[in-house]
Structure formats: structure tokens, C-alpha cells
């Protein structure tokens, strides 16, 4: 995975992790006892932290604080330890600062290990989280919880394939599972390291693959006592990609984005986008987005445009199938457009129609809500008469008179009925049953039903139009005259007699 088109180096990875964690890289090192946790911490400090500490006194103090590492079955770490005790501040060339600290936890006990029991039974140890000593195994569990929850930004589970000591792989499995279950319940990002004397052996590779399949987290094989810069780079990179995705931006053509939300194409895109995002939680999973988007029949291709690992923001570009723009344009316009000349001509007609509609749109909205609406005239429609002098008593003035057409709309419910006489009552009932056969499923079906060779919709429409055309011209003029007087004289009383 890349950032800005280039593979990230270790410094960039550390910066990105620090950005996700408020400037801190705190690694909680957990796992069973006798797997090399202390050895790993010592090697990590030697390779990734101490070389970047400029103060020699501080460096010497940190070296003194490094944990002891041993061989065999005897447990070395009997209480949790912060390494270094005060976080080391690393400043990069560009002035960016990162605080680094590792926490060496008490390991989860395995029966074959030595050192967790004494003559009185399970050994009692002290921890920073309790004033009283507690049993070794309880300290391991509590320490893991406290370290991962309160003192770590990333968890590192260290286990082994059984090649680093005389303890077999089987001895670690139960404690290993207990540690990982604990981390999964906490919910912080973590990775698993398999410490092996031979990282290329078949036995080691088998353990790595089995853990990947079982826990679905990154698993790396390393030799803890010979930790390389490449090992550090890989484990930090894998840890970074375990952080959650904070934001996903889908860049689609703008003409798709402006479609109405109920348009079938936009609904198809929104559904596919929702499905793609549902399968992504971590940064390492963002490649799933492009694959799922490509399954949409209207999407020609998709690719990850940018991945900002420091913020968790991801951008995905999608391209649309060729010819889809023209199809949607034809659907919206209602006519097929063959070239740009036709498009310009059509847009001119539509622009004129829109200007006309804009003058009455407010009236239409009002009439739908209240049954009556009006549209005021635009400035270009107002006719201003020549100013004239007027006299009121001994005083004179000027009259400026203007006339402007206003459009008034009245909602009238027109009734129309169709009453065919077809014969018996049974025949009439059969006709009703025929008309209502698809009621509730297809509302259009009743209008498409044919009676006497004509659609019911045509018969009803003819009846409505007939009634509307029956209003005589004189009555229309009278209604116009009445409205004119009501508006201009401001009178609200109307007496109507309809004969």
C-alpha cells in the first residue's frame, strides 16, 4: 500500500502512526511467558529508538532501563515495566516529533515454565495497579488489560513456533489464545509476531498461516534476538494498516452527483457504495472498496486515488460506462439527442420554458396548498403611464400610474363520471370485478382497462375536458372582471349568483 504514489519508508510510517495517536507511539508488548518479549523490546530500542536520541546522558539512562533477557524455561519478567521509564522523544529532520515507549508486560503463564511458583504456590508479584501483591497469573491478565487500554496505542502479541527454547509449540497455544482474546475484546489495533529461530522454516510458516486464518490480523515471523530494520519497518507498517478508516470519499462524475436521490442510477450507485463501505473497517481493507464498486454494471472502473494513513482518509475515483451520459440525457429530456447542435437548440427551448414557468411557479405552489394562488408581474411586464399633475384642494401633486398583469389561479375540482348501461346486475358486477382485478398492485391498470374499445382514462378525460369547455366566454370575462375589481379596489365582499 502506498501514500501519495510512493512506498512509505519507516520514518513516514512512524509519523503516520503518531498522527493517528496524538504524537505517541506506545507499543504494548504482550503474550505468553518465555516467548522473547524482553528480547524484542531490547532489540527494538537498539535499532529504532536509541540511535535517534541525541543526548548521551538520556541514552545511557535508557540503556540501563532495558529489560533483562534470558534463555531456558525460567521467567525473567515478573512485573510490568515501561521502557524507557519516560517516553523517548524522536525528532525527525523536518522537525516532526514522536514520543516512543514500549511496555513489557508480565506474560500469561504456561505450565511448563519455571519461576511463577514458589514454595507457597503461585508466586505473588507487585504491579503499578495494585497496592498489594497479587498472584502471578492474575498480574499477567490485569497488566495486559491496563497496558493495552491505558498505556498503549498499538498492541504487539509475541508468541513462538517453539524453536527458541526447549518448550514445544503446544505449550504456548492456550496462553496465546487467552492473550489474543483479551486484545480482541479491548478493540485496539494489534499485530502478532511469531518469534522463531528459523523464520523461513516450514514449521514457522505453518504457524504464521494458521494464526492469520484464525484471528484475521497481520502475523509476522521474526527472530527477536536479531531484529533487523526491515523487521521494524514491516511490523510498524502492518500495525499502521490495522487502524480504522475514518473517512471514505467517493469521487464520481458531477453529473451523477446532481441527479435526484430517487433516480434509478443514483440509487444504484448509492447502494453499491454503501455495500462497499460496509466491508471496510481497517486501512488494509480499503482495496475491497474498488473491487465491490467494479461489480456495478454501470461503473466502468474504480481505483484508490489517495490513502492518507495519518488521518485515515481514503479517496476512490470511479469512472462511468461509456454512453451512459447520453442515455440519461435522453431520459431526462424526453428526446434523443444526436449532436451538440440539437442539444443547444433544445436547451434554448427549455430555457425559455423555464423562464415562463418561473413567473408562475409561486402561484402553482400556492394553489396546490390553498386552492388559490397568484403570480406577481416581473419588472419587464409593468407599464408605466406618463406622469400627470393632480390637484387636491389648494395643493398639487404628481400621479405615477402603473399597470401590470397578474396571473391568478383557482383550483376547481371537476367531476366526471362514465355510466355505461350493459345489461343485468350480474354483468355489472363482472365489469366491476374486471376493473378492480389489480387493485392495490397496479394502480395504473384500472385506467388502462378498455370499455367499448376505449381506455377508461380517455373516457374520463373527455368528460373532464367537455365540462371545462362548457364555461361560456362571457362568464370567463365576468370572472376576470370580478377579480380585477377585488384586487384594485381592495374589497373583500363578493355576492355570486350562479343560474
UniProtKB/TrEMBL annotation:
Residues 8-244 form the Stage IV sporulation protein A ATPase domain. One of its GO terms (biological process) is sporulation. It holds the Pfam family SpoIVA_ATPase. InterPro entries: P-loop_NTPase, SpoIVA_ATPase, SpoIVA_C, SpoIVA_middle, Spore_IV_A. Residues 424-499 form the Sporulation stage IV protein A C-terminal domain. GO terms for molecular function: ATP binding; ATP hydrolysis activity. Residues 245-423 form the Stage IV sporulation protein A middle domain. NCBIfam families: spore_IV_A. This is Stage IV sporulation protein A. It comes from Amedibacillus dolichus DSM 3991. The lineage of its organism: Bacteria, Bacillati, Bacillota, Erysipelotrichia, Erysipelotrichales. The gene is spoIVA.
Amino acid at each position: 500500500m502506498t501514500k501519495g504514489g510512493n512506498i512509505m519508508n519507516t520514518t513516514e510510517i512512524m509519523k503516520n502512526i503518531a498522527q493517528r495517536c496524538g504524537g505517541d507511539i506506545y507499543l504494548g508488548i504482550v503474550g505468553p511467558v518465555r516467548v522473547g518479549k524482553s528480547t524484542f523490546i531490547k532489540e527494538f530500542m537498539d535499532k529504532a529508538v536509541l540511535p535517534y536520541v541525541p543526548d548521551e546522558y538520556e541514552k545511557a539512562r535508557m540503556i540501563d532501563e532495558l529489560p533483562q533477557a534470558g534463555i531456558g524455561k525460567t521467567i525473567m519478567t515478573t512485573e510490568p515495566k515501561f521502557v524507557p521509564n519516560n517516553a523517548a522523544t524522536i525528532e525527525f529532520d523536518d522537525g516532526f516529533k514522536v514520543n516512543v515507549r514500549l511496555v513489557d508486560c508480565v506474560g500469561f503463564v504456561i505450565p511448563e515454565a519455571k519461576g511463577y511458583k514458589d514454595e507457597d504456590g503461585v508466586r505473588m508479584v507487585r504491579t503499578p495497579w495494585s497496592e498489594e501483591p497479587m498472584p502471578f497469573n492474575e498480574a499477567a491478565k490485569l497488566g495486559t488489560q491496563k497496558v493495552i487500554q491505558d498505556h498503549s496505542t498499538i498492541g504487539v502479541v509475541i508468541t513462538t513456533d517453539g524453536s527458541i527454547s526447549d518448550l514445544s509449540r503446544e505449550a504456548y497455544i492456550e496462553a496465546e489464545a487467552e492473550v489474543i482474546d483479551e486484545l480482541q475484546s479491548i478493540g485496539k489495533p494489534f499485530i502478532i509476531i511469531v518469534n522463531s529461530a528459523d523464520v523461513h522454516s516450514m514449521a514457522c510458516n505453518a504457524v504464521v498461516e494458521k494464526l492469520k486464518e484464525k484471528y484475521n490480523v497481520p502475523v509476522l515471523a521474526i527472530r527477536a534476538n536479531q531484529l533487523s530494520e526491515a523487521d521494524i519497518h514491516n511490523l510498524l507498517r502492518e500495525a499502521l494498516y490495522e487502524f480504522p478508516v475514518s473517512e471514505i470519499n467517493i469521487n464520481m462524475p458531477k453529473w451523477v452527483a446532481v441527479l435526484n436521490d430517487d433516480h434509478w442510477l443514483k440509487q444504484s450507485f448509492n447502494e453499491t457504495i454503501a455495500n462497499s463501505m460496509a466491508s471496510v473497517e481497517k486501512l488494509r481493507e480499503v482495496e475491497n472498496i474498488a473491487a465491490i464498486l467494479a461489480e456495478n454494471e454501470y461503473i466502468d472502473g474504480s481505483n484508490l486515488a489517495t490513502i492518507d494513513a495519518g488521518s485515515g482518509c481514503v479517496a476512490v475515483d470511479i469512472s462511468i460506462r461509456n454512453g451512459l451520459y447520453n442515455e440519461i440525457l435522453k431520459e431526462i429530456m424526453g428526446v434523443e439527442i444526436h449532436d451538440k447542435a440539437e442539444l443547444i437548440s433544445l436547451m434554448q427551448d427549455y430555457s425559455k420554458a423555464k423562464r415562463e414557468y418561473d413567473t408562475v411557479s409561486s402561484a402553482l405552489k400556492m394553489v396546490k396548498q390553498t386552492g388559490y394562488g397568484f403570480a406577481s408581474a416581473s419588472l419587464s411586464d409593468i407599464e408605466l403611464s406618463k406622469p400627470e399633475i393632480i390637484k387636491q384642494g389648494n395643493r398639487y401633486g404628481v400621479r405615477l400610474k402603473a399597470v401590470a398583469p397578474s396571473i391568478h389561479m383557482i383550483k376547481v375540482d371537476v367531476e366526471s363520471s362514465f355510466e355505461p348501461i350493459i345489461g343485468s346486475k350480474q354483468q355489472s358486477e363482472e365489469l366491476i370485478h374486471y376493473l378492480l382485478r389489480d387493485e392495490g398492485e397496479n394502480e395504473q391498470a384500472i385506467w388502462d382497462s378498455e370499455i367499448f374499445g376505449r381506455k377508461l382514462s380517455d373516457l374520463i378525460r373527455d368528460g373532464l375536458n367537455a365540462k371545462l369547455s362548457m364555461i361560456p366566454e362571457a362568464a370567463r370575462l365576468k370572472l376576470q372582471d370580478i377579480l380585477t375589481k377585488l384586487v384594485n379596489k381592495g374589497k373583500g365582499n363578493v355576492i355570486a349568483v350562479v343560474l
